[in-house]
Amino acid sequence: MIDLLTNPSALVEFLSTCLRLSVPLVFAALGGVLCERSGVFNIALEGMILAGAFGAAVGAFLSGGPAGGLAVGILCGMAIGAVLAVLGISLRANQIVVGIALNLFVLSITAYLARIVFGGQANTMRLNGFEHTPVPLLSDLPIIGKPLFGQDPLVVVMLVTVGAVWFLLFRTRFGLAVRAVGEAPGAVDTAGLSVTGLRYACVLGSGALAAMGGCYLVLSQIYLFSEDMSAGKGFIALAAVILGRWHPVGAFLACLLFGLFDALQLRLQFTNPDVPHEFFTMLPYLVTLVALVGLVGRPTPPRAIGRPYRREGD
Amino acid sequence: MTGILHGLAMLRGLWAVAAALLVGAGLIVAAGADPIEAYLALFEGAFVDYWGLASTLTKACPLILCGLAVALPLRAGLFNIGAEGQLYMGALAGTLVALLVPGLPGPVHILLCVLAGAAGGALWALIPALLRAYQNVNELITTLLLNFVALHFTGFIVSGPLEEPGAPYPYSPEIPVSTMLPVLLPRTDAHIGLVVAVVLAIVIFLAFRRSTAGRSLAIIGQNVQAARYAGIPVRRTMIVAFLVAGAMAGMAGIFEVLGFRFRLFHAFSPGYGYDGIVVAFLAGLSPLLTVVSGLFLAGLRSGAGALQRAVGVETTVVEAIQGLVILFVAVGLAVQIRNATRSKAMPPAAEPAADEPRP
Amino acid sequence: MPKAPAPGGADSPPAPPRLELTDITKRFGPLLANDRINLSGNRQSIHAVLGENGAGKSTLMNILFGLYQPDGGQIRIDGRRTTIASPRHALALGIGMVHQHFMQVPTLSVIENIVLGGRGSGVGRKRHGRRIAALAEQFGFDIDLDARIGQLPIGMQQRAEILKLLYHEAEILILDEPTSVLTPVEIDPFFDVLRNLRGAGKTVLLITHKMDEVMAVADRVTVLRHGRVMTSVTTAETTPAHLVELMVGRGIAPLPRRDDGRRGPAFLSLDRVSAVNDRGTPALQDVSLTVHQGEILAIAGVDGNGQSELAEVITGLRPLAGGAIAAGGRNLDGVSVAARRHEVGIGYIPEDRQRTGLVLTHSIAWNTVLRAFWRHPFARAGLLRPRRIRDHAIRLVDRFDVRLQSIDQEARVLSGGNQQKVIVARELDGRPRVLVVAQPTKGLDVGAIDFVQRHLLEERDRGAAILYISTELEHLLDVADRVGVLFRGRLVALMDRAEATSVRIGAAMAGLADAAEASAVTDGVP
Description:
The complex is a heterotrimer of chains A (314), B (359) and C (526). Chain A has 314 residues and is mainly alpha-helical. Chain A has one domain: ABC transporter involved in vitamin B12 uptake, BtuC. Chain A has 14 helices and no strands. In chain B, α3 packs parallel to α7, α7 runs antiparallel to α12 and α8 packs across α9. Chain C has 526 residues and is of the alpha/beta class. Chain C folds into three domains: 163 residues, Rossmann fold, CATH 3.40.50.300; 61 residues, no CATH class; 257 residues, 3-Layer(aba) Sandwich (Rossmann fold), CATH 3.40.50.300. Helix content of chain C is 33%, strand content 25%. A six-stranded mixed sheet of chain C has the order 6-7-8-3-9-10, sandwiched between helices. Chain C has a six-stranded mixed sheet with strand order 16-19-20-13-21-22, with helices on both faces. The chains are: A mainly alpha (314), B mainly alpha (359), C alpha/beta (526). Chains in contact: A-B, A-C, B-C.
């Protein structure tokens, strides 16, 4: 571990890994922030990531390039969001139950469809993903240049998205309404805005964002789709939403923390070959758990979260 | 009254199953096969063929137990997504007793293993239960994260300290023959764990209906604030519900080792803990119907091979059908709530039963 | 500045009234909530709509605000017939409403709350602050526009609500029971606000059940009962007595008074009790009081001054942060909720009957044993005895005259009054020695209020020690033997019923503990 401090290139490499590992978490967590700020529980982040990953693989496979993959992936995530919205907002089903159901549904349906689409080559093919495209000038910055701007285009997109979600929530009229609808939907309704419309927008947006996390997994990391490749990332992202207090920047930082521990774990695996790697694999989950428990102070979620809105007497 | 409710819950389940099979038929047609032939083969392979039936019964045991492990806490509005992890920890604890406690007569040893398995699962469930009760940490996230910890932890144990020397894949040494469970059907894997699971389902059914503890769970599940006002010890009841649930899942794990695999393998569960969620929801959280829905999902799994042999469609099509089942169950719940014909078997839609679960 | 009260419709121009409702009808299932209601409101007038709980006032206002669609009748605005499709549409038509429970987002600032839903873009003070500040100045609202609304006192929140309507250029302002959240000393300044609004040409609809308010500030009054208009007259033409008769419809015998000061020995005592609320901030500080057997000690105060916490520490639902509570000489420290109910004998009628007092989705029978189902005779060895539970339920609903079809119905189908009867029946059964009663009359109609009050008086005469917490002063004074006042978590006044005038109580509720000063200060309070 010492070499990280003494050897700048090792440090740059390590930071790059950190960031790479946190990208899917960040996208999903931003989706979670948007959705939950509007008052809708999003347990389905996991399924949205997986749907995005699957869509990205199919899109890239059929179109032959990453752009098509990204588009199809985002559409798949939004489709999951649409189901959550219809059942959890319009039909007022329990949003947690719907979220759990969606996760299981996506898990099994993608496993089946992947066999159909990719056939026997599912685990051997290599999809055309994003090339590393360093941003001019910025990628030459010392230490942080390469991790932030010297990698994939999606890393840069992620950084921009963090800022964009922040701006949307805290500097626009739409964001004001979103924050209001998660706290007091009655106030939004009587102010003449559509509670349902706002929440639909947020849930669909959340599906798109989380799906981008899945797209990154396929198009920039693994270059293929494998069953259950989200591996609990949606739930870690959910923890990051809470840790970040439903704030986009807070959630971003929490994801970086989890990414850091994941990178650390990989490094420990590498430097301790005689210890079974499972020992290290469980670390990121434990860290997330400890972070949730050891949270200083009590986080207060948006007041109306999980409660489908119903007008008085309706 | 309860009979009617159960009937309704089952009808809803049947509706979801029918819809899922219909869409599944579409998938089979899309794959270029005859769905009726496929389903007939599936049914025959799962429930008619002797070996197939045995396989169904073997798989039903962990599915029913995990279904109970989900349904019981949900009665109190608590989401146990952690049956998978509890199953692994139960299997681990029970296997340790089977391998490391020598010289006991078979039945006593088996009993001890099962108790250890139950305890392992219960203790693993105690972690999220305590966090929820005293720190108000959302049990949904903690139970899920603990699944991964348990999976990798047992993986670590069987690839390190407890690894069979020279094994090509991480697994433990074989358990003593004296600790292997008696079988139900001769010359098959179907073991008596299933009987235990069914008996437990009946016991929990009776407890829900007739015991004060079951009543307390139902009140907590509907309205925590009223439960506190009533004088029900809410925290203690929540913790006990999780302990019992963990014990169920833990037993699912140890039965799988003692009755079917005879070793603790790394990642041996094909997701029984998660399938337990489907089992519980399909059963409308009714413990008795859990047996039926557990057998149904087990049948899907064990008939998949026959389906593939008959019409040449990927076995994963049954996973897709299972995914559709849970989706349609959710849709059914939503539509039912929309029609305001609420059933007491499900937590209400308007307020998550566990009032504001804080992370 | 306030003008002299305008003489109602006398000199209104021949132009059509700003708002005119004709034959408005609305059904909810079998209930006819509004039955052919006619109502009109002119420019520059204050029109009161008077009626009891359940008379149909809220339904009518929700129709006006676009939340409900009427089943029949017409709405005209400035003479033009219109339908009001949604709250957004209502706002566009110039109709704004201040709900009884404010429609505000507590975590947002006053400005953010006001611009929510408005035209334009941006959210900050820079863009919108000036116009809002000017409006506040015009109507004499001294309000911090950057404060989070949840942290403002309730009177300020109300002004923010009104400011919001003005910002959205509402011409017709509907105020639903606006004084129910105010202390007596805040009411006169609030009336000045209403007169300012009238002076600015607005049409104000004041929904209320309080006679004195109608007479004090309204130009015209329409009385509703059972969904029908009983009368519509100018206030100059009528008398309070006549209005009461029209509103209530039948005479209710006055409650028996007992002024002899008779009471038993002290039973429940609180010694320097402190507690924190759910957010961890102090809610009760150094509260000491004693309730005797055979007396009702009433606790007045504006909502949110520690009343809920007081009830909860006594019944065991909230831990003490300091001090001690004893009942019948037994220190209650560490005694559970259930033990307080069954061993000490503390009955509790909670404030929120739907969220705390009942499990709405469970049957009435189960609700009658909600706090005892695990005990003899309802259970044995951990197993329930359904027959005993049913017998008990039938006996209770008979004795307390709960109107229902079957004890197997879910509690949610009962009317508010009958829900309260179930709770009262359960808590009064078994002769409790202490009763903690929180907001027992809130939202009930006159008959149900009378029922609850009489039963509480009976319990008092039987010898129960009763702590009666209420924000509804008139009901509280009807039954109290002594009156205490909570203000910011402290017991700031405690007096015998004979000395308890609404002026003294009102002063204490507003934090002016020295009652002697009250009359001098009242007029000057902003």
